[in-house]
Amino acid sequence: MQTLAMLVAITGYILTRWEFLYQDLTRLASIDTLTGILNRRTFIEHGAQELIRSKRYDHSLAFLMIDVDHFKAVNDTRGHHGGDCALKTLAFRGKDVLRKTDLFGRLGGEEFAVILPEASQELAIVAAERLRSEIENMEVQINQDTFQITVSIGMTMLTAQDATIERVMQRADAALYKAKESGRNRVVFE
Prior knowledge:
The chain is an alpha+beta fold. It folds into 2 domains: 1-30; 35-189, Alpha-Beta Plaits, CATH 3.30.70. The chain has 5 helices and 7 strands. It has helices spanning 2-30, 40-56, 71-97, 121-137, 165-181, and strands spanning 61-68, 103-108, 111-117, 140-142, 145-147, 151-157, 187-189. Helix 5 links the parallel strand 6 and strand 7 (187-189).
């Protein structure tokens, strides 16, 4: 009887430990390790679900593509550690500015994206401009050195013709390139 109790206790411990490890692996597979926000795969998966929900209930949805302006120059002048600090600071500041219901992810390199569920075009433009302004005014600190960065933001709204989140993302990406071509550090709606 004592052996059975010990076997049950050990099995319980192993199962509990397995559950914690599974939760850690799930979190690690979903979160960008540098910035602590959603990684590309998870952002797109959640975005696809949000698109389905928005279309089903006829709710609005805005999509922002964000790119750090002149990021190569940051890496060239302040090293990759400086670039990493800039990306982490941007993500931290973005989480503060955005609503808890918004999806915020790092797509790769210095490119980020935001989905604003149930946001009108007017609200989305205000949110995008507030995010752009907050990033422009934040200070990135490395030891005693501080510097600033800016971002360009391309924005679009979900339309009835959009069947996939990738289609919405492509339109926001086109708007992002227009923001960069027209001087950077701005929001362009398409």
